[in-house]
Design goal:
The structure holds 2 protein chains of 2 kinds. Helices cover 21% and strands 33% of the residues of chain A. Chain A contains 10 helices and 20 strands. In chain A, a hairpin with an 8-residue loop joins strand 12 and strand 13. Chain B is α+β, with helices and mostly antiparallel strands. Chain B has a single domain, classed as OB fold (Dihydrolipoamide Acetyltransferase, E2P) (Beta Barrel). Helix content of chain B is 17%, strand content 37%. Chain B contains 3 helices and 9 strands. In chain B, strand 2 and strand 3 form a beta hairpin. The termini of chain B are far apart. Classes of the chains: A alpha+beta, B alpha+beta. Chain A: InterPro entries: GcvT, GcvT/YgfZ/DmdA, GcvT/YgfZ_C, GcvT_C, GCVT_N, TrmE/GcvT-like. Chain A: One of its GO terms (biological process) is glycine catabolic process. Chain A: This is aminomethyltransferase.
Chain lengths: 383, 123
């Protein structure tokens, strides 16, 4: 037997604060984004289902946590991304895109305004992808004005608590905090004498939180959370199947430097004000594509049968290749194979019948609205 | 009945001229949850080392190579509805296919259970 897919290039593999913690709990560790990361504990299907029904604890400490501060920080970020950060209130989070001069996507990221009420200058907290963080830091250092400070918070770990029971679990650790936040809001609290960043966000389609914690308290926080019956540690394997069902793109696969925000169907990340003002990288080109429509578009596809289509599989309409799969696999909650990929715009409408070639076989596929599994984000405060 | 193993983690259990092939417990453990198995067709002629089956897990697809040459006599139909049998009973009900051996001498190059066990421990 041999795998058709292999992992990333093996360079120097580093360990993260929870490395031993994962191994003690039976995790299978794999190299990912330069770190040893837990791919699974008891099995992806069980971990996936657990997260959809209870609460899963994910270690995402490989991701980059950055702080951008200084007078004019919002405007400086707006020069590099299409988000309206000047209008982003403290405690609010925006999904955004770091764009190159051609409008290609260098990374997708979360930007939170974390400016304290008495601060002298605005402060923005960024969470970027692990595989791209060093390039991101280089790009930001190169392009941010000298008066703006960029710090890499590499002494902090990042945990994600995701699932319908995440809020109840978090409430027992930091009572009341969950109630103060709705989806895409963040705050800072004290926990065991340290500062804990709490953001109501995640990458599973479920309600949940991302918790930024000093590295030397990461084990204590993870222990405190998995002590609850409804919380189990979950590996990156299930994180990937959950995000695929949620219709969320994975950087390096579904979006790259070669994709623009419009083709990637991420136009919601281009704020209304920025569409009017422009001023972000390749704004003219991107706004032109937005007006005319892209030649190809990121879509979801459901596949008949049980055979999965993986990244790279060509997509056909009859004899003509009209696209390619960028990520795909068996979707545990859907109960069948699903895929995400780019197809020519004429074939991108929901309900369009297409074929995907896998190992010489043509699989019947249907363009399907995403998410494949409805999001359960906590959008409104309780009355 | 004698069982032989390959370095690619297939097993073959031989009863007279007929061999039953599957993947080892070690292999299924490495692959994780199996969601689909692509099997060879009955009557197919296969040659030792050919990729004749694909085991799809949640994460990836993996080739299964036939340890012997011959003709496929039966593919395990139960796997269509229950691919997870390869996880739960890899060396039993989770077998993949039966092959009529064309050259029994090919078995000489395979490992016995003790040798395979030692091989896995060396990985």
């Amino acid at each position: 037997m041999s795998d058709h897919e292999t992992d990333t290039d093996v360079e120097t593999i580093e360990t993260l604060p929870l490395d031993a913690w994962h191994r003690e709990r039976g995790a299978r560790m794999v190299p990912f984004a330069g770190y040893h990361m837990p791919i699974q504990y008891e099995g992806i299907l069980a971990e996936h289902a657990w997260t959809r029904e209870n609460a899963g604890l994910f270690d995402v400490s490989h991701m980059g946590q950055l702080m951008v501060t200084g007078d004019g920080a919002a405007e400086a970020l707006e020069a590099l991304m299409p988000g309206d950060f000047s209008a982003l209130k403290p405690g609010r989070i925006r999904y955004s895109l770091l764009l190159d001069e051609h409008g290609g996507i260098l990374d997708d990221l979360m930007v939170t305004n974390v400016t304290p009420p008495d601060a002298a200058a605005p402060e923005y907290y960024l969470v970027v992808n692990g595989a791209t963080k060093w390039e991101d830091i280089g790009h930001l250092r190169e392009h941010l004005p000298d008066e703006i400070t960029l710090s890499h918070l590499d002494e902090r770990a990042l945990l994600a608590l995701q699932g319908p029971k995440a809020a109840a679990a978090l409430d027992r650790i930091v009572p009341g905090v969950a109630d103060t936040l709705v989806f895409m809001q963040g705050t800072s609290v004290e926990w065991q004498g340290v500062q804990l960043g709490v953001a109501r966000s995640g990458y599973t389609g479920e309600d949940g939180f991302e918790l930024s914690v000093p590295a030397d308290k990461a084990v204590a926080l993870a222990d405190a959370l998995v002590a609850f019956d409804e919380v189990k540690p979950i590996g990156l394997g299930a994180r990937d199947s959950l995000r695929l069902e949620a219709g969320l793109p994975l950087y390096g696969h579904d979006i790259t430097e070669d994709t623009d925000p419009v083709a990637a169907d991420l136009t919601f990340a281009i704020s209304k004000a920025r569409r009017e003002q422009g001023g972000f990288p390749a704004a003219d080109k991107i706004l032109d594509t937005l007006a005319k429509g892209p030649s190809a578009k990121r879509v979801g596809m459901t596949i008949e049968g049980r055979m999965a289509a993986r990244e790279g599989a060509p997509v056909f309409a009859g004899q003509a290749q009209v696209g390619q799969v960028t990520s795909g696999g068996f979707a545990p909650t859907v109960g069948g194979p699903i895929a995400m990929g780019y197809v020519e715009s004429g074939h991108a409408m929901s309900g369009t019948k297409l074929q995907i070639e896998v190992r010489g076989k043509m699989l019947e596929a249907t363009v399907t609205d995403m998410p494949f599994v409805p999001h359960r984000y906590h959008r409104k405060k309780k009355a | 009945m004698t069982t032989y193993f390959t370095k690619d983690h297939e097993w073959i259990s031989v009863d007279g001229p007929l061999g039953t092939v599957g993947i080892t417990d070690y292999a299924q453990e490495q692959l994780g949850d199996i969601t689909f198995v692509e099997l060879p067709g009955e009557g197919d002629s296969i040659a030792k080392g050919d990729s004749v089956s694909v085991v799809d897990s949640v994460k990836a697809a993996s080739d299964v190579y036939t340890p012997v040459s011959g003709e496929v006599r039966e593919a395990n139909a139960a796997l269509a509805d229950e691919p997870e049998l390869v996880n739960s009973k890899p060396e039993g009900e989770g077998w993949l296919f039966k092959v009529l051996l064309s050259d029994a001498a090919e078995l000489d190059g395979l490992m016995d259970e003790a040798a395979y066990k030692a091989y896995v421990e060396s990985l």
